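Ticket 4471: requesting a sanity check on a complex prediction with pyridoxal-5'-phosphate. Repro inputs:
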Amino acid sequence: MIKDNYTNIRQEIGDEATIIAVTKYHTVEETLEAYEAGVRDFGENRPEGFLEKRKALPADANVHFIGTLQSRKVKQIADDLYYLHSLDRESIAKKIEQYSNHTVKCFIQVNVSGEDSKHGLIPEEVPEFLETLSEYEKIEVIGLMTMAPHTEDRSLISEVFKRLSELKQKLAEDNRANIQIKELSMGMSNDYDIALQNGATFVRIGSKIMGSR
Ligand SMILES: *Cc1c(COP(=O)(O)O)cnc(C)c1O
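Returned C-alpha cells:
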C-alpha cells in the first residue's frame, strides 16, 4: 500500500521535487516500509518521533523536522538535526548555534495568509530575520516554508503558494552574502499539485503516502 502510494506520487511528480513522507502518525514499521519503497526523506514534528525514526532508519535517510520546535527542545535533537522547516524565531537559532556541531539546513516558516496559524513570520519580517541569522554559523538558510490555509478554495491556496514563490524571488534579488534561498517547502497531501505548479521543491506528504491514521 505505502509502496503503491509512493510509486504513484513519484511517477506523477517526477524528479522535480523532493518528496518528504510525513510519518508523524505512523509506526517505525510503517516508516521502514516507506524506506523499502524508496523514500529517503521523512518528516516528523515532535522531538520524540524524530529521534525514534532517526534511530530506526538507515544512515542514507534524511529525517526533516517540519513542525513547531520549542527552543528548549533543540538540545535533544541537535545531533541529528540537518533539516529544519520551521525556523521563525531567533531563540531557535541560538540553541542550534549552541548545541549543534554541524550546519543545519533551514527553511524560514512564513505565514503568508495571515490566517489561523500563529506560527511563521509575516513576509515583511523575513528580510530582517535573514539579516539576524547571518550572524549564526550553524544556520544555513536554504529556503522558505509555508502551510496553506485550511480551505477548499484552490485558487486561494494557489495565491498563497504564489506569494511565497514571489517572496523567494525578491529575496534572491536582494542578493545577501552567504544566504542562498533556492528552495520552497510547500504542499501537503491535499494541495501538493498546486504547490508544484507554483514552484515547490520540497513537498511534505503524510496521509497520501502513509495512509490515514
Ligand atoms: C502533518 C504535516 C504534513 C502532512 O500532512 P498531510 O495532510 O497528511 O499530507 C505536512 N507538513 C506539516 C508541517 C505537517 O505537520
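Notes from triage: The mean pLDDT is 95. Leaving this open until the requester confirms.
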